[in-house]
Input
Amino acid sequence: MLEQLYRDDFGRIVASLIRLLGDFDLAEEAAQEAFAAAVEQWPGEGMPQNPRSWIIGTARHKAVDRIRRQTRFASKRDELIRAIEEQGTADDADMTGNGFPDDRLRLIFTCCHPALAAEAQVALALRTLCGLTTEEIARAFLVPPATMAQRLVRAKRKIRTARIPFEIPPPELLPERIDAVMAVIYLVFNEGYAASFGSALVRADLCAEAIRLGRIVCELTPDNAEARGLLALMLLQDSRRAARIGADGDLVLLEDQDRTRWNHAQIGEGLALVHSALSSPPAGPYTIQAAIASVHARAPRAADTDWRAIEALYAYLMRIRPSPVVELNHAVAVAMATGLEEGLRMIEAIRVRHDLDGYHLMWAARADLLRRLERWDEAAESYGRALTLAEAQPERRFLQRRLTEVSARRRRPLN
Amino acid sequence: MQYMLLIYNDETTRPSSAAELDRLLGEYMAFTQDIVKSGHFKAGDPLEPTSSATTVRVRDNRTLTTDGPFAETKEQLGGYYLVEAKDLDEAIAIAARIPGARHGCIEVRPIRKFNR
Output
């Protein structure tokens, strides 16, 4: 039960404490100590009537203790302590201990402040909003724990030294700051989704945390359609998690996945969110990507996929968020909807226009169309090129498998 | 809380005509007056270009003086403001209004305070 309280409320509790104490570090450490005290005391003394209030109250006392030990100026120290205790009395009246909903929103914006390095934003969000330990975050991003610890220390120091405010940005800055928050959330999700199968368990957790953050943003900015779009996108992608990995631990393509293994409850929620997001035009990039994911989700079998709808959606995405990747995806959709040859022609044009010879995904997409056209020699060459450029192990294994397949079909031996 | 706003610009792209220079100076004056009025201004000056700079180092008790800025950089320090702001967001908002921000960049640095 404490475990659950921890996961659900750590962010909320830290946020309240930051407002109370005016110090990020102090708040986080106090929360940690309070939870540790709970683990120690609750088994013996029993669960308090209002666990959340107990935690916050204990954290406040721990913070006061720490301030007593650390602050050198007697007057400043006493003033701070008095302020904390006064605020505490006011808060005690709030029996639910729910805190101000704005606090968590403030915390999200603080963590994702543009003055912090992108990787620091992600680490800080996971640490303070999701309560992940430094070790867990380090493992997820494949860096040594000491490096991650330093990253967090530096970020919190910057918040204090430069005085990054614990506030919801003013209306004129809100749109771009929310964009930053959503970018961080999606970054966290992608870290979890682009699974390296060795640490699959940690990765699934990251997706869950990103989705949780996505829910918080939706809850706290109810008029924000893109937030719903982002949540939908994450839910729909995550719904395929179980089917993405084959028995041998290898990547299973969307078209080959066992769709009975998709999480249909999550799909249902995602579809509803897409519908909701689309009803507040203009649709943003997350919403469009979620719409594309929903087209796939609605197809009972791969062969039933409405590729024309996907093509139209990518065409729209190309207008609002152009990029080589989006153009490639559009070309693939054209290939599936209209004709492989046409898709291939488009890929060649994109390759030239964006100078993508160094981009493994272009070669992989090209190879796939050539394979479907049974142009084995060219497909083999293209898979080969992709292999020289791809870095992630799951992708390399997949490309190698394809290369072996098409090589076996070639009439002339490789020489 | 005080912040130093350091104005960096590419000196090779300075205003070419007298009219352009006039306009830029006018913008700076208007901005300065604004933040004086709002109480944010503590200090501020434009600097003579890096061609007038001299760099001083003392090593082993010897004073070494060289012509030019401390390092050759793509953009050079052209001026500064010292402002009072309640937090970083306020300092950033002020920095964004500095005319030089449109072509170069403004580094926002908190002033370090020591508890004596």
Summary: The mean pLDDT of chain A is 86. The longest helix of chain A spans residues 24-45. The two ends of chain A are 64 Å apart (CA to CA).
